[in-house]
Amino acid sequence: MTMLGDGDVHGAQPPKVLVLAMDPRLTMDPATSVPAKRQHKRVIGLAGYFAEEGARVDLVTAEPDGWASLDERVRLHRLDRAEARHPLPWLEHTVVIRAPRIAVRPVARAGRLGARLERARSRGSRAVHRRLFVPFYRHVRPHLLARIARRRVLREIDTGGLVRVIVMDRTSVPLGRRLARLHPDLVVTTRQERSLDAKP
Length: 200
Fold this sequence. Notes:
200 residues, 12% strand, elongated
């Protein structure tokens, strides 16, 4: 079997597969009945299959947890830290949570009135986050992650020899589309077929 990064005796390089699973809890079907944990296992299983077949596999995700059973030959590229440092989530946390907390802090310990004010501040911050920011960020996040991946990950992945890009979830679609436009001959697919030669 050809190991990751090794060529054969004639110097040929192994095929490369890129798996995009920005949010492995999701699927391509918004109404899917597949449990989140099962979808996560699908990603790990598919990446492991191609690694076992001798391909060089890169997995891009924004999910920090759940990769303990990932085949050690698969190169994992996590975007969660870069996402957390992005100005948009940082600004929301500062304006909606941190600034009100600092403003209320001087009176928060002033008996019952202070406690009420702190509870009101906490409820208000949570409501703004859940009802305003989360729905907005749900639409923005796929494009934000695609931009982060282009700047941080795709520079590390040599697209020469890349034969297949597998888009595992809806959050990964913008990056998949970008790769398809940049490399028209590259197979970019949402089909989870365990074959290096399957068509999209």
